[in-house]
Design brief:
Elements: H1 10-35, E1 38-41, E2 44-54, E3 58-65, E4 68-75, H2 80-89, E5 100-104, E6 107-113, H3 120-127, H4 132-150, E7 176-177, E8 186-188, E9 194-196, E10 203-204, E11 207-209, H5 212-225, H6 233-236, E12 242-244, H7 247-262, H8 276-285, H9 298-307, H10 318-329
Antiparallel strand pairs: 1-2, 2-3, 3-4, 4-6, 5-6, 7-10, 8-9, 11-12
């Protein structure tokens, strides 16, 4: 939607600064590409084809090895060990595979499959919402990927031999939370199936918060790693004497299903540009509605409503959510 800016207005200044930063970023990216036409990772030579995208601490490039295309993610900050461990730990056809990685001059290089169809947000941006059936089918796959995190069992994992497990991993179930589930973090494979990606925010799911200091740490982590329109309400204002758990992902899944079916998060107003404060307040109050110009069924809305309970204990588990979704796909009510 086109916006009107008055000379000297804050909006114009913001847009000018954003344009300048984007120009600088693009120039740096081009310089990097011109200096480094290829990169070697563990004996494999990858030719850099073009720049694809960037995140807060990373850049993504399209690279080639022979006839095969891959995505190269270059991470410029520390803390990468946890992300790499997550890719190695979880096994699901709905979770992206880490194919190769290395550390060079303080830069972490990760090689992933290349998805030419982009991510679900790319599709929404071009085509608006998915049909209800397509939304539910995609959602089912995403949930099955998340299930690998929420029901992770170290003892049954083939990715880690027993000798490499931490002492506290000697348990039956050790849930993890992705903490940044959204359409932009779900790739679309050639066969139409969803593939969950970007595990830079993934952590142990069940975190005890004993005091205000610990609460603020968790709140700051969420502000850095969890996208606001998909962030669970308990992460906006973390309370003392509480436990954060994997139910934060269930909320994000509800927001994601809503976005697939209605083209945006339930707490976003596509007509309003600056809405950070309103998103936080709406999420914490559980206040949202359904656009009137869509014909989606009450069954789909029931699944969304179940996920978007402000009280985490009232949200379904991932297994319950998968059952609800499969029931809806089979024509259940």
């Amino acid at each position: 939607m086109e916006e009107n800016f008055k000379v000297g207005s804050p909006n114009l200044l913001i847009e000018t600064v954003k344009d300048a930063l984007w120009s600088i970023s693009s120039l740096l990216t081009q310089c990097m590409s011109s200096r480094t036409k290829s990169i070697e990772i563990n004996g494999t030579q990858y030719t850099i084809i073009k720049y694809l995208s960037e995140g807060a601490f990373s850049y993504v490039y399209l690279v080639q090895d022979g006839a095969n295309l891959y995505a190269l993610k270059k991470i410029t900050n520390g803390g990468f060990e946890a992300e790499v461990s997550c890719y190695q730990r979880f096994r699901s056809r709905y979770i992206i595979r880490l194919l190769n990685y290395s550390i060079q001059d303080g830069i972490i290089n990760l090689i992933f499959p290349y998805f030419k169809n982009g991510n679900l947000q790319d599709y929404i941006n071009v085509n608006s919402a998915f049909s209800e059936q397509a939304s539910l089918k995609l959602f089912s796959g995403i949930c099955q990927g998340v299930q690998a995190l929420h029901e992770y069992s170290p003892k049954n994992s083939s990715s880690y031999p027993p000798s490499t497990l931490d002492d506290d991993e000697d348990v039956e179930i050790l849930p993890y939370a992705h903490r940044d589930i959204k359409p932009g973090n779900v790739m679309l494979a050639d066969d139409g199936s969803p593939v969950l990606m970007d595990f830079g925010s993934c952590i142990r799911a069940r975190i005890r918060v004993n005091n205000r200091s610990e609460a603020l740490i968790q709140q700051d982590m969420a502000a850095e790693h969890s996208s606001m329109p998909y962030r669970a309400p308990e992460l906006f204002d973390v309370k003392s004497d509480t436990t954060l758990d994997e139910k934060v992902d269930i909320w994000s899944l509800g927001c994601t299903l809503y976005a697939l079916a209605y083209s945006h998060s339930p707490f976003e107003d596509p007509k309003q540009a600056a809405q950070g404060g309103s998103i936080a307040m709406a999420a914490q109050s559980g206040r949202y509605n359904y656009p009137p110009n869509y014909s989606n069924s009450d069954t789909l809305k029931t699944i969304i409503d179940a996920c978007l309970k402000v009280d985490p204990s009232q949200r379904p588990t991932i297994t319950q959510l998968i059952t609800m979704t499969e029931h809806a796909l089979s024509g259940g009510v």
